[in-house]
Amino acid sequence: MKRLLLALLLMMTIAFSGCIKKPQGDAFSNIKKSLDNLKSYTSDVDIELHNNKNVKKYSMKQLYKDGKYRMEIYDESDKPDKVIVFDGSRSYVYFSKVNQTFIEDNSENIPAYSLFASFINNFKMAGEIKKEDGVEYYCIDVPILEGNTFMYNEVMEFSKKDFKPSSMKIYDINGELFAEIRYKNFMYNPQLEDGLFSQSDISTFSRYMNIQNDLSIDIKDVYKYTGINPVFPEYIPENYVLVNVSIDMSNNNAINLTYLNGNDIIKIVESVYTFDGKGFEKKKSGDISYYKKDNQYVVDRNGLIIDVFSNEKVSPDEVLMILNSLI
């Protein structure tokens, strides 16, 4: 009897252990999917360099598209200082104070190590990858393949909320911190003009340009852009028509489904992120559990987080019918 009880306890321990580890595995799978699907990005970046107990700080705007990149570096007063552009074959540097552009052949003068794309390359090529599930972030530690004694390995932190990069720390061969890069306002796969990565437009800073964050697409192309198969409700209130399907590239490539009845709107947003339910009231309807705050309803469909935003003309019962028809 004791042996049987011990066997049952062991099986339960293994089962619960598997349940605990599964979300972490799912999270790292989602991060890998985001990295594999990345074609372009933009981000505000703060950089700290640690050298001989001295710390040098500066900020920049990074833009990346298909192997080309653009770095716009700002001085301490947030004024444009210089622009570095790599067009796929050659690097150019524009100095705003003298209004001149030079060819830069010395790669050591370009802080390419700060690029998120540089981490992705090391991530894909690394034979060994260390993963850690922190309190607020998922961490991935990879060796720097073309590094040196000052840049030996790097640790990227991804937000648990939306899997976007939050910060990267680069360590030297002795494990001492060499650089810390913090990413803000990160956008996956925005539409970027090719001119941003050419010498001809190097003197115009992107903060004065209009970069589109929302992309309207055909339904059949949703998976190509997001890696997500969208879920459409089988029920929608009478006279509401699906008028637009778009990808919000500033919100982790979330899928937006817009239904209109005249000027009245129902919006359904589908994306993959960690939803903690804070600030929401948890409720149950039929076989599903959902969260509610004001006119926003949230349901987790096997890891796909679906938000339904209603208007005052749609009753709570009708919203619940929409939620139930999504499952």
Automatic annotation (TrEMBL):
Signal listed as a keyword: yes
Organism: Thermoanaerobacterium thermosaccharolyticum (Clostridium thermosaccharolyticum)
Highest taxon listed in the record's lineage: Bacteria
Keywords from the named record: Lipoprotein, Signal
Entry-linked Gene3D superfamilies: Lipoprotein localisation LolA/LolB/LppX
CDD domains, per the entry: LolA
Signal sequence interval, chain numbering: 1-17
Keyword Signal attributed: yes
Name listed for the protein in its UniProt record: Outer membrane lipoprotein-sorting protein
